[in-house]
Amino acid sequence: MNSLKALKVFFVFVVLVLSLGVFTALAQDSVKLTVSFPGDPRSETVNALIEGFVAMKAEAGVTVEMVVNEPTEGYGDQLLLDFGAGVGPDVFSISAETIPEYVASDLILPLNDLVAEWDEWANFPQGMKDMPSMGGQVYAIMYNTDTRVLFYRSDVLEAAGVPTPFAPTSWEEIFAAAEMIKQNVPDVIPMEVESGTIWGEGTTMDGFFMLFRGAGGELLDPADGKWIVESPAILEAFTFYETMFGQDYSKAEPFMEPEPWVFWLQEGLANGDVGMAVVVNVVWGLYAPDGPWGIENRDEVLAWTPMPAREPGAGMNGLDFVSMGGGWGWAISKSSANQELAWEFVQYMTSAESITTYTAGVGGIPSRLDAAVDDPHVAEITEKVMPYQSFRPLSVDYSRVSEQIQIATEKIMLGEATAREAMVEFGQAVEEIVGADNVKRLPVD
């Protein structure tokens, strides 16, 4: 072989070796990440954020292949099925109240060590840190939340002789306004607080807890992990229902309809047939003139105010007002083979910029203090209501306890039990669910 030919052979060999090296490096720098979240109406915004993450990693020389699962129905069931089949995602969106189920099944990664070294963690208010935590461990980083307030028809209250803007500081003032509506605008149902079994978790979250927290109540004692099944706060919350229905400030029949929210909110509050309602704040957008429940002159006839505690200082932690929040966060699978990259993804999706983008595109309330808020309603809610925010207890038994709350309110609503009788029956039912050793009863006058 002459020297020229040998040189050519050597050159081809070098090129092949270098090429293989490049391809090997590329293969090493390419990684797959599976992500699950509930689809529409979030899909467009979340997918755009995911593309931003992929682009960011590409700039760093890493090719990320994203596998996205976004079912529009049955998200929670599908997620558990995927985990059960061994094909669960690396990262998944999770509603805070479902965290106990994933913890009990050992599916979700505790994040304490990660957030301890994350400078951005300080930008989340304490409530957003507490919501996805149980047993001293953080299990998700929240990216969105909501809250509840007292909406009212200013035109109805004015017709009834109630001064507006309405800013009650006690339940007594709410009932006084309801009485004036009842007497002076008899065609209008004075008020609505979600009740009964058909409204499901809405009854517990938007109804009972908005009263219970306003009476300073704690349902699951953090000190000993026992359920408090009788207490002054439970009795006071149930007594609110007893007064509301007993004084004809609300009506039972519509709560027994297959979709009670249609009567009360979609039509009643929208048309001025209901005077006041304790509702999740996101309905403000539904009532926009071009919204699905549109009120043409919404800003002239509909207003809101923070829900007061039973009386000033009577609320949870001595607060004057109360609210309840749910929310969604990003969590990491405990079995993920790419936990480091998954944590990078979670950090990206919960950055101030990403949460700002999500809030603008999907709605809700941002979970970070430094996220920008363009919507005046959201900005006002964040300022005036978020300081009073509280959350449901995280427990694998919560859903069954919640069902008993709904049953109790329905019995009061239908006149089948007094507030005190409903509390006793609630306590007995919860004791059967969790066991006698896991409940306690506080003295009630």
Word description of this protein:
This protein is an alpha/beta fold. The chain has 18 helices and 17 strands. The protein has helices at residues 3-28, 43-59, 75-84, 99-104, 112-116, 126-130, 154-160, 171-184, 201-212, 232-246, 260-271, 283-286, 298-301, 339-349, 352-362, 376-384, 398-413, 419-434, and strands at 30-36, 63-69, 91-95, 133-134, 137-138, 141-145, 148-153, 189-192, 227-230, 274-280, 302-305, 307-308, 321-324, 327-332, 365-366, 389-390, 439-441. Strands 2-1-3-14-6-15 form a six-stranded mixed beta sheet. A four-stranded mixed beta sheet has the order 8-10-7-11. Strands 12-13-16 form a three-stranded mixed beta sheet. The protein is globular, with a radius of gyration of 26 Å. The protein starts with a helix and ends with a strand. The model is unreliable at 6-28 (pLDDT under 50).
